[in-house]
Amino acid sequence: MNISELKAEIARKNVTYRKLAEQLQISEQAFYNKLNGHSEFKSSEIKTVAHALRLSVKDVNKIFFGL
Fold it and tell me: The pTM is what?
């Protein structure tokens, strides 16, 4: 996972970590754990993040799968 690219997209789209955590229905701490590589994003969470940040399939592959 490309954490720095995900953080950059979050900043570019002006979305807060709190808002993303709410959309994922997880705590902010759980979101930080995922963001910092302490736990992994589930496929459903990747879809939610992609939708919230309006990411293209190419961006999703780059950020989450290193493709």
Answer: 0.92
d(CA 2, CA 61): 10
Radius of gyration of the chain (CA): 11
Q: What is the pLDDT of residue 64?
A: 95
Range of the domain at 42: 3-65
10, 63 contact by CB (below 8 A): no
The closest alpha carbon to 49, from 58, 41, 39, 37, belongs to 41
Q: Residue 14 belongs to a domain with what CATH number?
A: 1.10.260.40
The domain tally of the chain equals: 1
Q: What is the DSSP secondary-structure string of 14-61?
A: T--HHHHHHHHTS-HHHHHHHHTTSSPPPHHHHHHHHHHHT--HHHHH
